[in-house]
Design a protein that fits this description.
This is Phage late control gene D protein (GPD). With 338 residues, the protein is mostly beta strands. The chain has 5 helices and 21 strands. Strand 5 and strand 6 form a beta hairpin.
């Protein structure tokens, strides 16, 4: 397979000018509100490459000559610089889906709304369609203040409180449970079954989960002038008390449950590099498996252990970060998953 690419800046295909000078293209996709990014490094010997203008759109396509190329993303150039020696030009760009307007500070109160209604209203302000996980959409919020706070910060605060993730992508504002494994439109993502023989490098690290038995959050009962507790988990010890005082019982209970869920998750952090595959995106479900691997006929230097995942590796993971790298004649995909 022979990797290939195409780069279009402000509607102009500049691929022919890059063919002998392109050193590297890196594209990242990450769970959460972080913008998808593009980084390109070009050989600038002789200063013959025109420095692109900040704010111009850039489109990147990657693939293979044998199977064709695919449009990976549309970005806006936000940084360009030259350096040397050796003379190089670096171009950085961010996804156009991340609305700059969402950084504007807002001052408003949200009263007696569901999370679904709140996300729908915010999405509508930016001309985005919205999608909210059903279990989150129905959560009732009695009152919450957005006081000199951008929508980016406000959505991030809501996501942390309800153990969710959000992102503006592909014309959608999505607010979903962590590791949902669906496209922005709500279609289930395909499961990647990965054998050890199909990767070029891997790393797996374990992190022990917390032994906390419960989490307590307090809310202010204004009628009784008292702080009232809401506890997630059992009465065993040790426990944890959240520092913020919440305005109502519902938000206190949701915050306590979200924190307990986060603390009790035992994380296995996986990092794999493999031949380039554009269908791998953030939130993709991954399964490390030994099924279907044949080790018969292997020589002494290629034992069974070289072709099977060791105990503790096989299992289901969800991708939270992906990087596609086109470099010289090579094209690789690196992802991190939990």
């Amino acid at each position: 397979m022979h990797p290939t690419y195409k780069v279009i800046v402000d509607g102009e295909d500049i691929t022919p000018r890059l063919d002998s000078r392109l050193m590297e293209i890196r594209l990242t996709d990450e769970v959460g509100w972080f913008s998808d990014t593009m980084t390109m490094i070009v050989d600038d010997a002789g200063g013959r490459i025109k420095l692109p203008k900040i704010g111009k759109p850039i489109q990147v396509q990657l693939g293979y000559e044998e199977t064709g190329i695919t449009r990976v993303g549309d970005y806006i150039i936000d940084e360009a610089k030259i350096s040397g020696p050796p003379d190089q030009m670096l171009i950085r760009a961010r996804s156009v889906d991340m609305c700059q307007q969402m950084k504007t500070l807002q001052r408003r109160s949200w009263d007696q709304k569901t999370l679904g209604e709140m996300i729908e209203k915010i999405a509508g302000q930016y001309g985005l369609r919205h999608r909210v996980s059903p279990e989150l959409a129905s959560i009732f919020v009695d009152h919450i203040e957005q006081n000199s706070e951008s929508d980016i910060h406000f959505l991030t605060r809501l996501a942390r409180q309800y153990n969710a993730v959000w992102k503006a992508i592909s014309g959608h504002l999505i607010f979903i449970t962590s590791q949902e494994g669906k496209t922005p439109q709500g279609t289930p993502l395909p499961v990647f079954k990965i054998h050890r023989t199909g990767v070029t490098a891997y790393e797996l690290a374990w992190a022990e989960r917390s032994n906390l038995k419960h989490v307590t959050a307090y809310w202010r009962d204004r009628d009784k002038a008292l702080l009232m507790p809401e506890t997630a988990g059992d009465s065993g010890q040790p426990g944890k008390i959240l520092q913020p005082v919440y305005p109502d019982a519902g938000r206190a209970k949701a915050a306590a449950q979200a924190e307990l869920t986060r603390l009790q998750q035992q994380h296995k952090e996986l990092c794999i590099t493999m031949p380039g595959n554009l269908t791998m995106i953030a939130e993709s479900p991954v399964q490390l498996t030994n099924e279907g691997v044949s080790v018969s006929g292997r020589g002494k230097t290629q034992s069974k252990e070289h072709h099977l995942w060791r105990d503790g590796y096989p299992g289901d993971y969800t991708v939270h970060w992906v990087e596609h790298c086109f470099k010289g004649n090579g094209y690789t995909t690196t992802f991190r998953a939990r």
